[in-house]
Amino acid sequence: MLKYLGLDAGGAITITAQQIITACEYLFGVSGHPLYGWFDPITQGWQTNQANGGWPVGTVWTQILRPSQGMRDLISVKAERGSATVSLTNNYLNALGSQLSGQALPERQMAIWLARNREDLEPGPVDVAALIREMKAQLRLDKAEAGLLLQDFLVEYDAVDAVGHWSGATLAALLPSPPLQPAELISIPATESLTAEEEPDSEGYAWTEEFARVGLPDHDVRALVERLSKLVAAADLVLPDADNLLERCVIGLLTGHVILQGPPGTAKTRLARILARAFQATSTMRTATADWTTYEVIGGLRPMRDSTLAPTLGYVTEAALDCARVVRAAGENGQQQGLDDEVNQRGIASWLILDELNRADIDRAIGGLYTTLSSTDSADLASTPVDLSFEEDPDRKRLWFPGRFRIIGTMNDVDTSYVNSLSQGLSRRFQFIYVGVPEEDQVKAEVSLCRKQAQDWLSNQYEVPSLSPLEGADQEGEGGAVAYVALAEKFETIETQIRELITWLRYEKTNEGEPLCGWPLGSAQVRDLWKAVLLRGSGADSTVKSLIRTLDVCFADRIVPQMGNLRSTHVAAFASHLKEQYPDLEETLRAVKHLSNTQSVR
After folding, report:
1. What is the DSSP string of 100-155?
2. CA distance 427 to 422
3. C-alpha 567 chain-centroid distance
4. What are the residues whose beta carbons fall under 8 Å from the beta carbon of 46, sequence distance 6 or more?
5. pLDDT of residue 469
6. Which residues contact 68 (CB under 8 A, 6 or more apart)?
7. Is the Cα dihedral 564, 567, 570, 571 positive or negative?
8. What is the SS3 assignment for 345?
């Protein structure tokens, strides 16, 4: 981006907020989508229009104004009000090569992407080599820089014609479909204007000090656990040692912030939402990413379209302020009775759920919140407001966290190679609660509930009537009883196979009584298997054989790829088990064997 803005070796450029916005729109912008306004062509990932600037504009501007050590090896920065003067270091090429470590960008993919909005390209053959030359010129890359940054990986978009022929439509049409709009983002405006005319709330933050002394109104552990148990049962969750787990969650939240950690697919995120409801609190969810800095967490200066900078809160401080407003609206006693009674009721607090917390380098991003998060005691919160140094208004430079505010984090503790660790100092500020897979004697109930959840999904998503013969299937009329029994037998066969496979992977023991595999495969993965099976079973031509084939393919395509972190001996043992006990699961066996030797033909 800095090269695109004109930065060359031996020189310096002055960058404004408007230039950052223009460059981000050129490199990442996608027009015409109300929610997902940004697309990363390298990771193929969509990003939302975020109220606080977010990625890429806010993140890039923060990295320039407060560069990390890696960035300081590449650039020198002199920040001024509304602008920054940037120059390359004398050793930037060596530093760049060291940081990339051979991970160059796909040359052809970048060239095609950056030409996405060009109106001068006509339908017909396109000279991709010419596009590459034009891209290098636009990005002002010399031979040495291009050699480090770009490499032709022959990575192409799904539409092959885009590489050899121009479709006439913009390349934005070739992008993968954005994800479904998350429920927690529904209230985000369709388009963020980013203009200086957006005046912040004129009210300062001094009033929040009063609510630092207002704690949670209910501390009856038994009553809270009972309420939480009912919500968990209504959500069809099967939790290991549920009574103990839920009590630990309740006590943890009464005393401070908590982190739910465990394998993927164990309903940590769903449980986090339910915990907030049990305390009569609403919740906002944010998913952590590797790009997070103090800008995303605490806040900073947000670039505006008129080249000015405006202060904006980060996710945590914004959530704490929202909680203070809810507490103020609820009144000190906060005696509202349940969130389900009134759709618009805000509850007695508003909490923040940080999903996949360790995807971010949270120790670096949490910054000045260390002290504030160390305690939820009223006296401590009243004496340790968060310092908002980026605010100009003296009444907005300090923000007090309410005594009712809680953060619930979720962490995947299996994929340790792809996540960041938390320091002991930060870990002390949370109670870590392990959420594992159901126990062996719960597997039957778990698989049955996963089937019910998949059926609910199928009914809601595609309006397919119930396929479950145990829930109101019609046994009357000609052929009704026969069809009922046949349907029951088909799905019973599948349910038995899923149950046996899950039990073996999790709990099978060696002759010495040690876990043979011990793989904590989550309930979410079981639900994925049922979705595929029920989709196939909704057809009139479905048979036991076709359903087993569907289970086989889905297990091979969705479950086996997740076994990459297992030891080779565990994979080999599962392959032997499949060969001996499940000869019909041919595709799964081939996928498992291929996992052991990826150089082999599958």
Report:
1. HTT--EEHHHHHHHHTTT-SSPPSEE--HHHHHHHHHHHTT--HHHHHHHEE----
2. 6
3. 27
4. 36, 38, 39, 40, 178, 179
5. 46
6. none
7. positive
8. coil
Are the C-beta atoms of residues 464 and 458 closer than 8 Å to each other?
Answer: yes
* Token output for 83: 């602008």
Parts of the chain belonging to CATH 3.40.50.300: 204-434
Is residue 352 within 8 A of residue 283, CB to CB? The reply is yes
Give the angle 202-204-208 at the CA atoms, nearest 5°.
140
HSE, side-chain direction, 13 A CA sphere, residue 263: 19
Task: Label residue 470 exposed, middle or buried (CB < 10 Å: 0-12, 13-18, 19+).
Answer: middle
Contact 247, 431 (CB under 8 A): no
Amino acid identity of 112? I
Q: How many helices (H) and strands (E) does the chain have?
A: 23, 18
SS3 47: strand
Encoded tokens for 25:
């729109």
The token pair at 133 is 């030359």
The span from the CA of 307 to the CA of 326, in Å, is: 34
Q: 293 has which bridge partners?
A: none
Q: Which amino acid, one-letter code, is at 311?
A: P
List helix spans (H) across 300-360: 315-330
Confidence (pLDDT) at 252: 95
| Token pair of 391 as six digits | 């605010």
CATH topology of domain 204-434: Rossmann fold (3.40.50)
CA end-to-end distance (rounded Å), the chain: 42
Distances, alpha carbon 515 to alpha carbons 29, 523, 569, in Å? 50, 19, 12
Residue of 305, 314, 400 lying closest to 362 (CA atoms): 314
Supply the DSSP symbol for 559. Answer: I
What is the predicted pLDDT for the residue at 459?
82
- Which residues are CB-contacts of 292 (< 8 A; sequence separation ≥ 6)? 360, 361, 362, 365
Residues forming a β-bridge with 225 = none
How far is Cα of residue 35 from the mean position of the Cα atoms in its chain? 16
- CA-nearest of 348, 345, 333 to 279 is 348
Buried b (16+ CB within 10 A) or exposed e, 166-185: beeebbeebbeebeeeeeee
User: Of all helices (H) and strands (E), which one includes residue 433?
Assistant: strand 430-434
DSSP state of 494: H
Query: What pLDDT shows up at residue 43?
Result: 59
Mention every residue, 6+ apart, whose C-beta is less than 8 A from residue 316. Answer: 297, 298, 352, 369, 407
Task: Count Cα atoms within 13 angstroms, Cβ side, for 219.
Answer: 7
Pick out the chain residues at pLDDT < 50.
51-52, 153-200, 332-345, 469-485
Three-state SS for 276?
helix
pLDDT value of position 427:
82
352 forms bridges with which residues in the sheet? Answer: 284, 407
The 3-state DSSP class for residue 307 equals coil
